């Protein structure tokens, strides 16, 4: 912990992830399981726990759940069943503060990504299901001014950019000449803030995360209204 209630990540956390990247196999992980639990798992769970109260103020219907399984910390074990990449472990920390009604990672959420090469924050919905995607697109089309306010603030433009893939052609049922057609064509609605790796080691890291999430309240409000949930 740092500065009272604020939490951060540790150099030993990044060191373990770096070594896991170089030794991504079950034997090495088994030999270093206690290091993973102390240097990665416990540190990440402390951060999640430290985010509970501020998240409740920023977005009361989103949850910070500091559990080893089934909580805000995404599993270290990769699902290799349908992937050509058979490496068994993720070499990053993924933390998603999901909506209380969320079923999966495609629901509205606030995301923190930590790995030895990149640190970034994400706010929004990654590859929402077809119904949610249609609802968001329809709201952008119908509430253009509200959308432009959500993504046009000084704070948004200074720190965030919209990420993810887009359709090559306008989706069926939408005017190709709509002034916001480029946003309507998006497959994901994720606002991303890139940070330096060193940022996650600084005492003020959690404060930066809180401030960033708070700045995107109009953006998250727009998405939540579109899919019919409360922020």
Structural features, described:
The chain is α+β, with helices and mostly antiparallel strands. The protein has ten helices and five strands; from the N terminus they run ααααβββαααβαβαα. The protein has a five-stranded antiparallel sheet. A hairpin with a 4-residue loop joins β2 (109-114) and β3 (119-125). α1 (11-22) packs across α3 (33-50), α5 (130-142) crosses α6 (144-152) and α6 runs antiparallel to α10. The two termini are 28 Å apart. The model has no long low-confidence stretch (mean pLDDT 94).
Describe the protein's topology.
Elements: H1 11-22, H2 26-31, H3 33-50, H4 52-58, E1 93-98, E2 109-114, E3 119-125, H5 130-142, H6 144-152, H7 154-159, E4 161-163, H8 181-184, E5 189-195, H9 205-215, H10 217-227
Antiparallel strand pairs: 1-2, 2-3, 3-5, 4-5
Strand arrangement within the widest β-sheet reads 1-2-3-5-4
Question: What is the overall silhouette?
Answer: globular
**Which H/E pattern describes the elements?**
HHHHEEEHHHEHEHH
The chain-level structural class is alpha+beta
Poorly predicted regions are: none
Strands, total number: 5
Alpha-carbon Rg, integer: 19 Å
Q: What percent of the residues sit in helical stretches (DSSP H or I)? A: 40-55%
Tally of separate helices: 10
Major pleated sheet? 5 strands, antiparallel
As a percent range, the share of strand residues is: 5-15%
Summarize, please.
This protein is α+β, with helices and mostly antiparallel strands and 231 residues long. It has helices spanning 11-22, 26-31, 33-50, 52-58, 130-142, 144-152, 154-159, 181-184, 205-215, 217-227, and strands spanning 93-98, 109-114, 119-125, 161-163, 189-195.
């Amino acid at each position: 912990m740092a500065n009272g209630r604020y939490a951060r990540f540790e150099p030993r956390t990044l060191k373990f992830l770096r070594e896991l990247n170089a030794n991504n196999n079950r034997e090495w992980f088994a030999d270093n399981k206690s290091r993973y639990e102390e240097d990665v798992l416990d540190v990440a769970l402390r951060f999640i726990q430290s985010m509970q109260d501020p998240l409740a103020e920023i977005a009361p219907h989103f949850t910070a759940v500091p559990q080893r399984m089934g909580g805000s910390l995404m599993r270290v074990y990769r699902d290799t069943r349908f992937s050509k990449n058979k490496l068994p472990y993720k070499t990053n920390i993924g933390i998603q503060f999901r909506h209380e009604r969320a079923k999966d990672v495609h629901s509205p959420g606030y995301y923190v990504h930590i790995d030895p090469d990149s640190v970034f924050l994400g706010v929004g919905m990654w590859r929402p299901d077809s119904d949610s995607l249609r609802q968001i697109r329809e709201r952008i089309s119908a509430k253009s001014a509200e959308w432009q306010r959500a993504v046009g603030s000084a704070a948004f433009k200074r720190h965030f950019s919209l990420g993810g893939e887009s359709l090559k052609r306008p989706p069926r049922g939408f005017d190709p000449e709509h002034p916001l057609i480029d946003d309507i064509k998006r497959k994901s609605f994720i606002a991303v803030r890139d940070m330096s790796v060193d940022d996650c080691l600084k005492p003020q890291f959690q404060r930066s995360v809180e401030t960033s999430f708070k700045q995107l309240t109009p953006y998250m409000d727009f998405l939540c209204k579109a899919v019919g949930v409360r922020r």
